[in-house]
Design goal:
By secondary structure, the chain is an alpha/beta fold. Helices cover 40% and strands 17% of the residues. The strands form two sheets. Strands 1-2-4-3-5-6-9-10 form an eight-stranded mixed sheet, sandwiched between helices. Strands 7-8 form a two-stranded antiparallel sheet.
Length: 316
């Protein structure tokens, strides 16, 4: 397994890779890094694939543009197109987790000629809603229920300041609250005056699957790079809605697979999309729920995720 910088058309992207053979891109989410995929990189390389996990735009060793609008879904998909080309390939399978799942789904939706199959973890495909931008819909939910989805709390320009003030505490709370064995699980919905970070007690332990050494790698990366750029992904949600009008009612037509943890808090606010996936994906070959698992599924349950991915890849 090796780490290197690779220059694409628009960015210097830091990648973690191993193996030779057909290309499989592994796209991480928030707040993670390429190192989140180590177990999958090893398993895929052993099975005869070239597994490549980039630090995504704004994360880790990859460039962090200053402009908020530089983190739209068009930029993120474009980065994966550029990376595939820079690796000398004209087709690949794309795998995504969390925000990386949204990117992977859109890679398959926008460029099926290049991304010939897609497998995603934790976040189902979410089609464009025709009735208006997503933050307006979230505001309506908050007005009706009195509880605010955390994504809306990420919209202000200074929302990242709470994370930057103590990256270790923020990361520890995030990893704990979305773990399948969490004693203080998050639903993603917050009471008035509460933030995603303040909603989790300060003395929570790391999940059992995360070592202190592995955690220190995350803390070091986010202490240097900060959380401004990662939260800009969320601040582009309404821009994404505007820019993807041309995708209204579009279906994913390449082979696809989806896995989610039974105790993943994302299911509280994306369960409807999970149930409707067969309506939007023409060739959904596998849809699996892992009993007892949480959100960080590729790290929490690496053997099950690896088996799921390899079975999907072998069937292509």
């Amino acid at each position: 397994m090796r780490q290197r910088l690779i220059r694409t058309d628009r960015l210097s992207q830091q990648i973690l890779e191993a193996g030779d053979g057909p290309l499989v891109l592994l796209v991480h989410g928030f707040p993670e890094l390429s190192i989140s995929w180590r177990a999958q990189i090893a398993a895929l390389a052993d099975a005869g694939y070239h597994a490549v996990a980039p630090d995504m735009r704004g994360y880790g060793g990859t460039d962090r543009p200053e402009e908020r609008d530089s983190y739209s879904i068009l930029h993120l998909v474009g980065d994966m197109v550029d990376l595939t080309r820079a690796l000398g390939q004209d087709r690949c399978v794309v795998v995504g987790h969390d925000w990386g799942a949204a990117v992977a789904w859109h890679c398959a939706l926008m460029r099926p000629d290049l991304f010939t199959a897609v497998a995603c973890l934790s976040v189902p495909f979410q089609p464009r809603r025709p009735k208006g931008p997503p933050t307006a819909a979230m505001a309506a939910i908050a007005q009706r229920t009195g509880r605010d989805l955390y994504i809306r709390r990420f919209q202000p320009d200074d929302a990242h300041a709470e994370f930057d003030a103590d990256p270790a505490a923020a990361l520890r709370k995030m990893f704990h609250a979305y773990d399948g064995a969490s004693e203080h699980p998050s639903t993603g919905f917050l009471a008035p005056g509460e933030s995603l970070i303040s909603s989790v007690p300060g003395d929570v332990p790391l999940p059992a699957w995360m070592s202190e050494a592995h955690f220190a790698e995350y803390v070091e990366a986010f202490a240097v790079g900060g959380f401004r750029a990662p939260l800009d992904w969320y601040r582009c949600l309404d821009l994404n809605w505007v820019q993807t009008a041309w995708l209204q009612d579009a279906r994913i037509r390449v082979p696809a697979a989806f896995m989610v943890g039974e105790r993943d808090p994302v299911r509280f606010y994306a369960g409807r999309d999970e149930a409707a996936m067969k309506d939007w994906i023409r060739d959904l070959r596998a849809q699996q729920v892992v009993p007892g698992a949480g959100h960080w599924i590729q790290q929490e349950r690496p053997d099950e995720v690896n088996a799921f991915l390899l079975d999907f890849l072998r069937g292509l």
